[in-house]
Write a structure and sequence with these properties.
With 188 residues, the chain is mainly alpha-helical. It folds into two domains: 92 residues, Orthogonal Bundle (Arc Repressor Mutant, subunit A); 86 residues, no CATH class. Helices cover 52% and strands 12% of the residues. The strands form two sheets. Strands 3, 4 and 5 form a three-stranded mixed sheet that branches. Strands 1-2 form a two-stranded antiparallel ribbon. α2 packs across α3. The longest helix is centred in the first third of the chain and has 20 residues. The chain starts with a helix and ends with a helix.
Length: 188
């Protein structure tokens, strides 16, 4: 497994959620109307990950059981139960997050919009992914893949998923538990 595998799987979950909200598989996205958002090319464009890496990521995820191919469409889709269990119980050991120096970036963890109202830190420091276009200043946390901040600007649902993942990776027991509960609700 690589960090981008989790990013790709959560993007697929975000696309499924968008499709449920709209009521069909052709939910509007930032891609061209003719582009299939589930295709390797569509995922590469949305996530800033090369097509080769997207393809390898999907193959790894299918081999590990974190993704399956949909029988009707042939599209890859996350195995939500397995993905949820891996994120909650194993991700922080496989991809630990170590807060670093102060830097400008996109808020993550308890400072992200998905958790900002329900969790408050005792300190004034927040965690951020490095991102030159951001205005927030906080402690650097490396994202699961370098293009995560740009991808999250295009997809609020993906941002919420990845911020919850970071809260689990870097949070104390209370923050991790709260983020895990929200992730369980969102991933169903």
């Amino acid at each position: 497994m690589k960090g981008q595998d989790i990013v790709v799987l959560l993007k697929l979950a975000s696309l499924e959620d968008d499709a449920k909200d709209v009521g069909n598989e052709s939910a509007p996205h930032a891609l061209a109307a003719s582009e299939d958002p589930y295709s390797v090319r569509g995922l590469a464009a949305a996530l800033g990950i090369s097509k080769t890496e997207i393809s390898a990521s999907l193959n790894r995820s299918i081999a590990s059981g974190l993704a399956i191919k949909d029988r009707k469409t042939g599209r890859p889709k996350p195995s939500r139960r397995h993905l949820r269990e891996f994120i909650i119980h194993g991700l922080k050991f496989v991809f630990p997050a170590k807060p670093g120096a102060m830097q400008r970036g996109l808020p993550t963890g308890y400072a992200a919009p998905v958790l900002r109202e329900s969790l408050h830190s005792a300190g004034s420091l927040i965690y951020v992914w490095p991102y030159a276009h951001a205005k927030e200043l906080g402690q650097l946390v490396d994202p699961l893949f370098k293009s995560v901040p740009e991808a999250c600007e295009k997809d609020a649902r993906l941002y919420a998923y990845l911020a919850l993942v970071d809260a689990i990776r870097i949070g104390n027991q209370r923050e991790s538990k709260h983020a895990a509960d929200l992730l369980i609700q969102r991933l169903g």
